[in-house]
Specification:
3-stranded antiparallel beta sheet, binds 5-S-methyl-1-O-phosphono-5-thio-D-ribulose, 7-stranded mixed beta sheet, alpha/beta, globular
């Protein structure tokens, strides 16, 4: 099995596999500044909630390196300015601000001048990377509980190694199931309009040698009705305290379809995807993406001229459609509000 790498720290820059060009071209983009990292996040060179958080952490480390000869005050001013730019790169995935906040908090506690902040920022960014890689394996381990032998699983978008530092969340669980010797078949939603399923998830599954079939998003109900899909597993970009979950546009539709067919739907995500400031899903900001993603395919216009276009990148699945949330400390079950509150408390105790 080919080990997919999303990003690597090169000592002086962050190298990102260019996900806009996958699967047909494996090229790397080198980011030498925090602004370049913010731009790569905005252009979806790197994407997926955990991966953009980790990239943003390295972005701040780059900002700190640039001011390592400055006084603490000057360095701090530049670092917080870079933090603002990184936070604004994409609005929905909370992991981005989570990682930026984690770095700023660490730096605020480090005494010294620019040089000390620069070395502290880099070691914290590396820790964020290692943490993500490690907890995804734990999500995979706990997720075995929801993928029995012989499962026929539908997944949407890409929540694999490419969307994280390593291993993946929803796809990490399927990988763990495979590593545990379970038989499974994966149905892959192509995930219009940006094709994360057809391009990225399909590529990861083929590389892992997992039995999988690509379908159009609007085929899911048909295959559920035929009894060919027995569970749905997706990632998340932001989870509210009541369990409402923002994920790639189309996830809500799957929630409704799964409920109608009495099929369980599981969300897989690290606890950093839970937004403690968000009581319910209505307050989650939804990214509006360029209209060309709908009107054009490979640069060629397919939509009728003059048609208006809406392109929200995410939707919110209400907690009532979610059977369980697989995290690095175990599977959370409804009612989610108390389960999430105690998971966050347990996480603080462990930290
Ligand atoms: O727009 P994208 O490709 O960044 O959206 C990604 C998703 O919606 C993923 O499901 C989510 O970020 C979880 S990735 C582990």
């Amino acid at each position: 099995m080919k080990n997919l790498q999303t990003m690597r720290w090169e000592g002086h820059c962050l190298a990102l596999i260019d996900q806009t060009r996958l699967p047909h071209e494996e090229s790397w983009v080198e980011c030498h500044t925090a602004e370049a990292v913010a731009d790569a996040i905005a252009r979806m060179v790197v994407r997926g909630a955990p991966a953009i958080g980790v990239a943003a952490a390295f972005g701040l480390a780059l900002a700190a390196q640039k001011v390592c000869d400055e006084t603490r005050e000057n360095a701090w001013r530049s670092i917080t300015q870079a933090a603002r730019g990184l936070r604004q790169a994409r609005p929905t995935a909370v992991n981005l601000s989570w990682a930026v906040d984690r770095l700023l908090k660490r730096l605020a506690a480090i005494p010294g001048e620019g040089a000390q902040l620069a070395s502290g920022a880099l070691s914290e960014a590396k820790a964020v990377y290692e943490h993500d890689a490690r907890i995804n394996r734990l999500i995979g381990h706990f997720g075995l509980e929801v993928i029995p032998d012989g499962s026929q699983v539908l997944t949407h978008c890409n929540a694999g190694a490419l969307a994280t530092a390593d291993y993946g969340t929803a796809l990490g669980i399927l990988r763990a199931a495979r590593e545990a010797g379970r038989r499974l078949h994966v149905w892959v939603d192509e995930t219009r309009p940006y094709w994360q399923g057809a391009r990225l998830t399909a590529w990861e599954l083929v590389n892992m040698g997992i039995d999988a079939t690509l379908i159009c998003d609007n085929m899911a109900g048909h295959f559920m009705k035929l009894g060919r899909i027995d569970r749905v597993i997706v990632g998340a970009d932001r989870i509210a305290l009541n369990g409402d979950t923002a994920n790639k546009i189309g996830t809500y539709t799957l929630g409704v379809l799964a409920a109608a067919h009495e099929i369980p739907l599981f969300v897989a995500a690290p606890l950093s995807t839970i937004d403690p400031t968000c009581a319910h899903g209505d307050s989650i900001p939804i990214e509006e993406r360029p209209t060309e993603e709908l009107t054009h395919v490979h640069g060629k216009r397919v939509a009728a001229n003059g048609i208006a276009v809406a392109n929200p990148g995410f939707d919110v699945t209400p907690a009532r459609y979610i059977t369980g949330i697989v995290t690095e400390i175990g599977v959370l079950s409804p009612p989610f509000e108390p389960a999430i509150t105690s998971a966050l408390k347990a996480q603080h105790t462990l930290a």
